[in-house]
User: Fold Phage coat protein from Chromobacterium amazonense.
Amino acid sequence: MSQCVMVQPDQSLKITTTDAQSCAGYLLLTPQEVSALQSPFVPLSATDGAAISGAIFLVWGAAWLWGEIGSFLKSGSGDST
Assistant:
């Protein structure tokens, strides 16, 4: 169970009876509570991160190219203004 603690002027900690929702100090957690707070997402490897970044870059590049082609086709002479 988590405990609310307040830092005293001498830098010591004093446990209070305040509940977690209204704790104005620090909240001390058990290891089980900390593990329950961990992100549900699996950490990415460098290879996975690079693949996702590359895919985002390719989608961005395709959108930019699509816009350029649309601009070229709109201007009758092919000049971009």
Summary: The first strand starts at residue 3 and ends at 7.
